[in-house]
Amino acid sequence: MQVAVWRVYLSRVYRLAVSRLALASLEAVGWLAWLVAFTEPVRIAVPSKGRLREPALSLLARAGFSVSMGSDRFLMAPTSTPWVHLVFVRPEDVPWIVATGAADLGVTGLDYAIESGAGVEPCLRLGFGRARLSVAAPGEAGYRGVEDLDGARVATKYVRIASEFFASRGVRVEIVPIHGAAEVMPRLGAADAIVDVVSTGTTLRVHGLVELETVMESEAVMMARRCSQLRQEAGDALASVEAALNAARYRMVMMNVPEDRLGSVLAVLPSMAAPAVTRLHGTGMWEVITAVPVEDLARVIAEARRRGAKDVAVMEVERLYP
Question: Where are the domains of the chain?
Fold first, then answer.
């Protein structure tokens, strides 16, 4: 009797040990997959502060690379896609982080990319952070153009861009490198003019400055050392960001169309290649699905309904891969 009891007990212990071992093996495989993904993750450098940070994080989230709450306290954070990490650095440091290979991709202003001289390439224009780099001077100084600044002192943190700009115009200036607010420098007597980023011009007006000339237009870009030579995983990440940008420009439109009106409706519908058309069982109707540019949406829907389309539904697109 005792032998039988021990056999049952040992059998249960054996089954428990096997199940625990199996579970441990599965967990090991899971962790191994994560470790493999993290061995060489795609790193995307993003601004740790400033006006580009939040729009950049929002775009990356739409591309599938969102970060958890509290990640702003870290210099590097994994995303919802395990093989993609974000690296948080100063906006002006992003080009160098990318150029050295510490990050595969980076998001910052085109002005910072050019000023760095790091030799990085803009792969995508991201559509936010638009501004202009301008020459500005006190209104009471009476400068009518940049040629009047010959011999003047110009304060800027864009030393490379400003130097090349004035040299190209044949205007001799003394560049005063700064790292803080440029607008106050003429009032302090530290400079006669400035070269700085202008969005609305409000800050210039508050400090009594007027724009003399635009040096360049800037916006946020996603950059790489060589856009055409990205490793496969980084290229996939770039494609997802581009797909998120594409999605913002389109809406998916679904409609039901009577068979005798189908040709007329299809004639006014835009599409990526061609609208998807499916016969609805037992109704004499067709379901039509197509992607419509946002700017054409109201006109296309109105015309399609005039031609017989019914039950029109409009949906946002999360990502649109060409």
Answer: 1-37, 40-129+220-245, 134-210, 250-316
Q: What is the pLDDT of residues 121-179, one digit of tens each?
A: 999 999 999 999 999 999 998 899 999 999 999 999 999 999 999 999 999 999 999 99
Nearest 5°: the CA angle 79, 105, 195 is: 120
**Pairing verdict, β 153-156 and 174-177:** parallel
In this chain, the answer to whether the domains covering 134-210 and 250-316 adopt an identical fold is no
Closest CA to 289 of 251, 248, 249, 245: 251
Q: Do residues 320 and 247 lie in contact, with contact meaning Cβ atoms separated by under 8 Å? A: yes
Q: How far is CA 34 from the centre of its chain?
A: 25
**Which of these, 98, 135, 100, 128, lies nearest to 113 by C-alpha position?**
98
DSSP result, 84-112: EEEEEE-GGGHHHHHHTTS-SEEEEEHHH
